[in-house]
Design a protein that fits this description.
Nucleotidyltransferase, domain 5; alpha+beta; 20 strands; about 625 residues; six-stranded mixed beta sheet; GIY-YIG endonuclease; eight-stranded mixed beta sheet
């Protein structure tokens, strides 16, 4: 164990209070490496600094790195549990068993608090008097179900404020093609009639499929008897769609309860937790989660850690959570989840009957996921972290976590633009991508444009660091800059960094005649690279990505410029309507190909303006 200067472990241990709380272990770099909770901080924290009592190699390694610790006293163990979860989520300590990623799940939201309710997908579950169904694991399936419900019952999917806006605007395209009952039209449908449609839709969401199946079959037969074959075919397609959704419900429980079934599979290094989501007695989805830093942990500890982390971040908590093993923190977790849900939540570890079989089924699925995905994960790590390590070996450097690459795009000097892409540990970090519209360079001068981009990027970064209120746009600097070119591009970057007194390594990706990377230019030396290596493949992906991002931005600017100039010539299309068209239609070609009804329904144009736009492009 290392000891931070000025921090006397023995003296600090004497100060620990015999109260509940959370403790944070830090290493010599002041990085938080572990967060834990305790009923008695004095006893718990002291236990780490006693002679080894069989706590396992993982904890031994962690203890050897502790330079200092700190603690936060709470009024109860429950408060400590909540705080522990928050701190783990914020700091993601190296030695805590962690969910490998955070996922949000789609819900079906029914706005029953509105006069004319809507049904749509939501990834947040709020206390807003709406009704939620889920969670589901497939957003595609949710959208498919919502689309079917709106077709079956003619419910609206617009954002109009009804009944306040009734009669103010023309009905949308959905009304004209028979997929909405038109509550926005005055005296078209009463709230009571609409409520009957909604009631049927909610029954459908609750799994009552037989009434609609019977009704669709009857309508199909009536249409066929009346020789209305197109209408009969429409009912036939809806009938098959409902059947396919009904058949997706694989597990049924006569108790009609909401429950999650949680089990794990593990080997010496990894653990996978499988969750079955059962809602109203039917399984609506399943998902598996990889747990990091699980080696040396007991199965009970991994499951308890998963439950605390997963349900701290999910908006829906079922009444029952069935676990593969009994949790030693059962009472505490039940108390916390019950308070979070607002009603009683039960943790149980069934030992017999149907419930035990469901847990066994979840465990066997976890084992399958572990065996099938292990090779996939290793391959992915080879493509990302492994490729970065190869690049480090080629260049003779270390610590290349964040890599930034830049490119310039222009066509005949039109709208010079720059792009910046970021790769973190070998994976694209798209939230940190940035676009630059060149301000000081006219004409196709890539070197001058690159100088402007780099100067703006790092000047902004230095300013954010100095002000101490960086918003994450530019205040994080790269471990290496990858220039899309050789000596010339590298020298431009080095000059900018020198002027700003920054020391960041710069590597050029030297091209062959086909504009593909053939080697690297680093520290005034061009070095070859194996074109079959993972490092080369990573550099190629980065090169392709920075080109794509620059060209995509350039294309969008050209499209907007062309769209702007053409639409300006159409009578009745002012700035607001031009903006509406550009927001809805991705290109000028899409606007040209749109019908009058689409211009009205999608862009919200009044008929005279829609006809003017259509006539402008079609000569009428």
């Amino acid at each position: 164990m290392s000891e931070e200067k000025g921090f006397d472990v023995k003296e600090e241990l004497k100060k620990l209070p015999p109260r509940p709380g959370v403790y944070l272990m830090r290493d010599i770099n002041d990085t938080i490496i572990y967060v834990g909770k305790a009923v008695n901080l004095n006893n718990r924290v002291r236990s780490y600094f006693r002679a080894n009592i069989g706590r396992g190699p993982k904890i031994d390694r962690m203890v050897s790195l502790i330079a200092r610790f700190e603690y936060i006293v709470t009024d109860s163990e429950l408060e400590a549990l909540v705080l522990e979860n928050d701190l783990i989520k914020e700091h993601r300590p190296r030695y805590n068993t962690m969910l490998r990623d955070d996922k949000t799940y789609p819900y079906i939201k029914v706005t029953v608090n509105e006069t004319y309710p809507r049904i749509f997908l939501s990834r947040l579950m709020k206390k807003d008097k709406a009704r939620y169904f889920g969670p589901f694991t497939s957003a595609y399936s949710v959208r498919e179900t919502i689309d079917l419900i709106n077709k079956l019952y003619g419910l609206r999917d617009c954002n109009r404020s009804l009944p306040k806006d009734i009669g103010k605007e023309r009905p949308c395209l959905n009304y004209h093609i028979g997929q909405c009952c038109g509550p926005c039209i005055r005296d078209k449908i009463s709230p009571e009639e609409y409520a009957l449609r909604l009631e049927k839709a909610i029954k459908f969401l609750n799994g009552e499929y037989n009434p609609i199946l019977k009704e669709l079959r009857q309508r199909m037969e009536e249409a066929s008897e009346n020789l209305e074959f197109e209408e009969a075919a429409r009912y036939r397609d809806l009938l098959e769609h409902v059947k396919s959704i009904a058949q997706k419900q694989k597990i049924e429980d006569m108790n009609q309860e909401d429950k999650d079934i949680v089990a794990l599979a593990r080997d010496e290094e990894d653990a996978v937790v499988q969750v079955f989501f059962v809602r109203a007695g039917r399984m609506v989805g399943r998902e598996h989660f990889y747990m990091k830093n699980s080696a040396g942990e007991s199965s009970e500890s991994i499951l308890s850690g998963f439950v605390k982390q997963f349900y701290a971040g999910t908006p829906f908590i079922p009444r029952q959570i069935m676990l593969q093993e009994e949790s030693s923190e059962k009472d505490l977790i039940e108390q916390w989840l019950s308070a979070k849900k607002g009603s009683r939540v039960y943790l149980m570890a069934p030992k017999k009957g149907q419930k035990e079989k469901l847990v066994e089924l979840a465990a066997s699925n976890a084992a399958i996921a572990l065996s099938q995905d292990k090779e996939k994960i290793k391959k992915e790590e080879g493509r990302t972290i492994g490729a970065v390590r190869e690049l480090e070996a080629i260049l003779g450097v270390s610590g290349l976590n964040r890599m930034e690459s830049y490119d310039i795009s222009n066509i005949s000097g039109f709208e010079n633009v720059g792009s910046m892409v970021v790769y973190d540990k070998g994976k694209p970090k798209r939230s940190d991508y940035r676009k630059f519209r060149i301000k000081t360079v006219s004409g196709p001068d890539d070197y001058a444009s690159m100088r402007e981009v780099l100067t703006r990027r790092f000047t902004h970064g230095l300013k954010e660091k100095e002000e101490g209120n960086g918003n994450g746009h530019f205040d994080v600097f790269p471990d290496i800059i990858l220039m899309d070119g050789g000596r010339g591009q590298v020298n431009i970057a080095l000059e900018v960094l020198s002027e700003l007194e920054l020391d960041i390594p710069v590597c050029g990706m030297v091209k062959d005649d086909n504009h593909r990377t053939r080697g690297l230019y680093f520290n005034n030396v061009e070095m070859p690279i194996d074109t079959g290596s993972e490092a080369f493949k990573l550099l190629t992906r980065i090169q392709d990505e920075v080109h794509r991002f620059a060209i995509e931005y350039h294309r969008s600017l050209r499209t907007k410029e062309q769209t702007h100039s053409v639409l300006d010539d159409i009578p009745g299309v002012g700035p607001a309507r031009r903006k509406a068209l550009m927001r809805v239609f991705s290109s000028l070609e899409d606007i040209k190909n749109a019908s009058v009804e689409e211009l009205i329904g999608k862009a919200g144009l009044p008929r005279n303006s829609a006809e003017a736009v259509y006539g402008h492009f079609h000569g009428s």
